[in-house]
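Late entry, evening session. Most of the bench is empty. Finally got around to the prediction I had been postponing all week. Sequence below, unchanged from the version circulated by S.P.
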Amino acid sequence: MKQGKVITLLHWLGYALMFVFIIIGFVKAREGQEAFMEYLKEDGLVENLTTLFLLASCGIAVYRAIAACREGKKLWSVTWSVLAFLFFFAAGEEISWGQRIFNIASSDYFLEKNLQQEINLHNLVVGGIKLNKLIFSQILTAVLAFYILFLRILAQKTRFFNKAVRQFGIPLPRWEHVVALLTGTVLVSQYHLLKAGELREFVFAVVFFLIFLRPYFVAPLPKGSDS
C-alpha cells in the first residue's frame, strides 16, 4: 500500500475513533456524572489513548526533525525539535510522568502545591495562581486558536507571515483538520459535566497527530501579492 493511502486510512481511522469516543461520552453523560467520570477516569482508556497520540506526535516530530537536519534545513529541524519536546512534555504531564504506573510517591512539595497531589506541573498552584488555568487553559487556548484559525490565512495573505512560516517550516493544519477539531470541540462542550476536558484533550491529541502526519506547508506568495 502506498504511503499516501496509508496516511489517508489513518486519517479516517483517527476521525472515526475520535467521534466514536465522543458519542460514547454522550451515552455516559445520560447515565449521570458518576458514570461519566468512570468513563474518563485516571489511567482509563481515554487518558491512555490521549497519551499514546501525544507520544505518536512526538515520534513524528522527531523523525521530521532528523530528516530536516539531514536536508540542511536547520530552522525546520529546530521547529520540529521544539514540537517533539512539547508533545513529549504533554504526554508526560497527562500521566503524571508515570507516577501511578510505577507507584511513585509524591514529594512534600507536590503534596502541598499540587491540587491533585501528583507529580505534574499543570495542577500546581504558585502564589495563589493555578497554572492549569493561566498557562494550560487561557494562554494555551489563545495560542492554539491563533494557530488553528488564523495562521494559515495570514501565511497565505501577508508576506511577513508567509516568510516566517516557510523559513521555520511550521506545519499548518489542513481545512479538514480544522473542521474536525472545531466539530469535536463543540460537541464536547455540550456535555456540561465534570471531566469533559479529558475528551477535549483527546480530540486535540488525535487531530494534532493527524496534522503532523500530513501537514500543510504554505507556498511562497507571488511577487506583488503582499498586502
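Two things to note before I forget:
The longest strand covers residues 125-126.
The mean pLDDT is 90.
Will write this up properly tomorrow.
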